[in-house]
Amino acid sequence: MKPFTYTALPARVIFGVGTTDRLPDELERLGVKRAMILTTAPQADQGRELADLLGARSAGLYTGAAMHTPVEITEEALARYEDLRADGVVSIGGGSTIGLGKAIALRTDAPQIVLPTSYAGSEMTSIIGQTEQGRKTTQKTLKVLPETVIYDVRYTLSLPAVMTVTSGMNAIAHAVEALYAEGANPVLSLMAEDGIAKMTAALSRVRAAPADLDARSDALYGAWLCAVCLGSGGVALHHKLCHVLGGSFDLPHAETHTVVLPHALAYNAPAVPEAMAAMRRATGSQNPAAALFDLSRESGAPTALKDLGMPEEGIDRAVEITLENPYFNPHPLERDALQALMRAAWAGERPS
Ligand code: NAD
């Protein structure tokens, strides 16, 4: 066996159906007496339910979480956190809400309990991205890693059909790149393969029966495994392309991951035989890149960057930006090949 390094991040994870009931005890465990509950406006009802559950242990609710963690929102939420004399945060929602909780923890060291409702995976990482005057910066610090994550499968029942798939593909992308990123190791590869297998199988089952708790449980469990891959593993070309497309072309997060992933995987396939063997086992397909593309297409999820608002003339610029400051990648980054990749992703061609 090749030598390797594996770093586990310290987080407590509670998983199941109805696990939200554990929230009061978990706050007690962290010594939090007055938790501020964070969410987005569309998920305000879920935030209010938590406030009811917590009673006097709820300091109040803030429902202004927004995409890309804008600093103005963080400052507003922070002022409320101080007004309420809160001593911890409970974040219920997807990556945007979790990002706000992390931003508050970064500035106050507030303990965080997170109840994820999407598959994006931010809850298991020590990464925070923030936006100020249109510029997004990212940092990595254990200060933002949530202390406790409560996965309650019930919250994922309300995920709309297309968001279930795009968010699931976002999760799968973390695991795919952990299989071949710099620092890939056998422990994370186990989690990655099982995460991809659970999520791909569950997405088909959820499509047939969106309220199937077993299928939803497998999807959320798969999302957790994939999130660990993002938190402890590395990323490569796929994440670089998505960061370029999100940052410079303002394309939506999960949808962009969904469109780009099959193409990034096909690009790297010749350089990563072991990762491809794991992908074949996980997807049950001899052509994993095409299998992911088909899963999205059959589910009505986007498969072309042009449908996400990417201008065709932006392709060259996206490739330039990718090459200016590239991430590690197992396959050499070649301008012509990257242009072909981007063109195929823009047009929505099925990878062969
Ligand atoms: P999101 O949090 O922006 O959610 C999109 C919308 O869906 C929101 O209105 C949200 O309230 C709603 N929603 C979430 N769960 C729902 C549910 N179960 N039912 C109904 N509606 C629901 O989107 P996201 O894809 O979860 O997160 C994307 C953001 O997270 C991006 O900004 C991305 O950069 C960030 N992110 C960060 C990390 C990290 O490690 N820092 C990792 C992954 C994603």
Q: How many separate domains make up the residues?
A: 2
Q: Which residue ranges are poorly predicted, with pLDDT under 50 across at least 5 consecutive positions? A: none
- What is the CATH domain class of the largest domain? Mainly Alpha
**Spatial ordering of strands, largest sheet:** 1-8-5-4-2-3
| Hetero compounds | nicotinamide-adenine-dinucleotide
Taking all Cα atoms into account, the compactness measure Rg is: 20 Å
Outline, from the CA principal axes?
globular
User: How many helical elements?
Assistant: 13
Domain Alcohol dehydrogenase iron-type/glycerol dehydrogenase GldA: 10-152
Protein name: Alcohol dehydrogenase class IV
Family: Belongs to the iron-containing alcohol dehydrogenase family.
Pfam family, one: ADH_Fe_C
Give a description of the structure.
- By secondary structure, this protein is an alpha/beta fold.
- It contains 13 helices and eight strands.
- The chain has two domains: 12-156, Rossmann fold (3-Layer(aba) Sandwich); 159-347, Dehydroquinate synthase-like, alpha domain, CATH 1.20.1090.
- The protein has helices spanning 23-30, 44-54, 71-83, 95-108, 161-180, 186-208, 213-232, 237-249, 253-268, 273-283, 288-298, 314-324, 335-347, and strands spanning 12-16, 35-38, 58-62, 88-93, 112-116, 127-132, 135-140, 148-152.
- A six-stranded parallel sheet has the order 1-8-5-4-2-3, sandwiched between helices.
- Strand 2 (35-38), helix 2 and strand 3 form a beta-alpha-beta unit.
- It binds nicotinamide-adenine-dinucleotide.
- Nicotinamide-adenine-dinucleotide is lined by residues 40, 42-43, 67-68, 93-97, 99, 117-118, 120-122, 125, 127-129, 155-156, 158-159, 167, 253-254.
